[in-house]
Structure formats: C-alpha cells, structure tokens
Amino acid sequence: MQSWGDMKEIQPLVSQMLMNSFNKDRISHAYLFQGNKGTGMREMSALFAKSIFCKQRNGTEPCLVCRDCVRIDSGNHPDMHWVEPEGLSIKKEQILNLQKEFTYTGVESNRKVYIIVDAEKMTVNASNRLLKFLEEPSQQTTAILLTENGQAMLDTIRSRCQLLAFQPLNQQKLAEKLEGQGISQSNAKLLSALTNNLTTAQELNDDEWFANVRKLVIQLIEVLLNKPNEGLLFINHQWMSHFKERQQLQMGLDVLMLWFHDLINHNLDREDAIIFKQEKEKRDQAALRWSRQSAVHSLSLILEAKRKINQNVHPTLVMEQLTLQLQR
C-alpha cells in the first residue's frame, strides 16, 4: 500500500499538485493521468481515492487500514469503480453501465470516483458516451483517466480533464529501493534499467526464467568473441529454446542492448554507469573486439531486430541474421 510520502518519491510534482488540490478543496471533476506503464498512475489513482473516502485520514494522508482503504485496494468499494478494456477495447456498454451506477445514491457517502484504465482504448462510441458524461459533471463525482497515449483520445475529452504528466521513474532511486529489499546490487541495476515498475522488477528477480536470461546473454557474447563459427549453433540450440515467445525474446534483446551500452560506457570511462560489473574481464576482451563506434552500430542492429520481431518476422531468422551481423 502506497502513502503520499511513497508517491512523492516516485512522482514528486504530480503528488504535490494532487495534495494541494485536496488541501484547498479544489478537487477537479476529471483528471487525465498520462505516462508510461509502471510510472505509478494506477497506484496514484487508488491513493487519491483513499484520501477522498478515508474517514480517518490525517490531512491528505489516508490511514490505509480502515474499511474504506482496504476495500479500495481490493477493488470492492461500492462508490469507486474501475473500468478496464474487455479484450482489446473499452466498449460503449461499459460506459453505459458506469453511468447507470452513478444514477444511484452513494452507498457510503455522497462521493463517487471512477477510474478508466487504458483510456485511449475506448471505442469511438464509448468515447462519445463518456464525453456526454464529462460535459455534465457532478460536484460529487471525480473521474480519473489513465493513458499511455493521450494523443489517441478525443481532444474534447482531454480539454475537459486536468492533465497530469507522469515522468519516467528515476533509475537510480529504483535500484536503491530494490537493494533495500534485499536484491543484489548487480541485479538491482539490471532490473532498474529494464523496467520503471517496482513490482515488475521484483517479479523478474524472483523468476528463474529471467535469472537464465543474463547467463545466456553473457554466453552469446563469449561465443561471438571466442567461437564465432558456433554462433548460429548456439542460437538454434540454446538461445531460441529459452526465448520461446516474442515478448521473452524482446527482453533477451533488451538485456543484450544493456551489454553493449556497458561497452560504450567502458570506452568512455563511465564505470559507475556499468551494469554487468562482474563481467569486467569479458568486457575488457570485448572492448578489443568492438570499438565504441562498432558498439553503437551493434545497438542499432539490435533495435532493428526488435522492430522485426514486432512485425512478426520469424524469430529464429531474426536472431540468425543479427548474430551474423554482430560477428562482422
């Protein structure tokens, strides 16, 4: 459970703006939270709702343990409603059902809050229906729309919301938080470079499959350095058997990119920025094989491979081509 103190460490500006609006009793009828996945939008929404409903709050800080706070965390508060995509989109019927709920008197209080997740995924009909809802706001109703892409939403919806931009999480602070939870420094740096999401980082750290990702990336580098003729054999017999899904392969390529970022930082004497610190000997050897310029070129090759994976090019063919390109 997050407190305002926790959220101020993650999103200081947004947290302060929301706390100010609460303290000055100027809560907007609609907010648009915009930011990348894992930047705390969902957690901020739930915390703001707790500040609205908690009867034992201290200033803006909800108690986090009362009946209202606990039910918000479990998604069972009768006056707070979450709307999320059903399949690939949020449909008109979901907005109609939401409006129907809001015709009833509040069960616990006169306040009502609704949160629409992935708001950019509303169909045209759903967006138009929501627009009518926003055009006739009740002073007792607060809407919070969460989106990674506000430009994909109707201008008329955006104009009726107070826009709050969520910044990418500070990588160093995330690494420190992970270390504080007992995760090794090397893994904390790797995880904070891969994701802005504390929960996702924790889950990856506990995942045996992910533990082998790091090993396979180092093994691929060793093959490219010492046994380049066995590169395709390694890809077909070891790499592809571990990265069976496209999403998994994308993560493998992300870790491979971090290795080449380390190589560039090594060439620039930025030792503090290096993630694979335990592989110094291999990095020294790799620096003789790849200059800074060729390491930058390798990053562009990996990015191109990631693009092809997204375009449904056969994963094995993509990796074979990338391996041959990295050997040159």
Automatic annotation (TrEMBL):
Keyword presence, DNA-binding: no
A Pfam family hit: DNA_pol3_delta2
Enzyme class: transferase
Enzyme Commission code: 2.7.7.7
Signal peptide, first to last residue: none
Keyword Nucleotidyltransferase: yes
UniProt keywords, alphabetically: Nucleotidyltransferase, Transferase
InterPro entries recorded: DNA_pol_HolB (IPR004622), DNA_Rep/Repair_Clamp_Loader (IPR050238), P-loop_NTPase (IPR027417)
Top-level taxonomic group: Bacteria
GO molecular function: DNA-directed DNA polymerase activity
Alphabetized NCBIfam families for the sequence: holB, PRK08058.1
Protein's name in the database: DNA polymerase III subunit delta
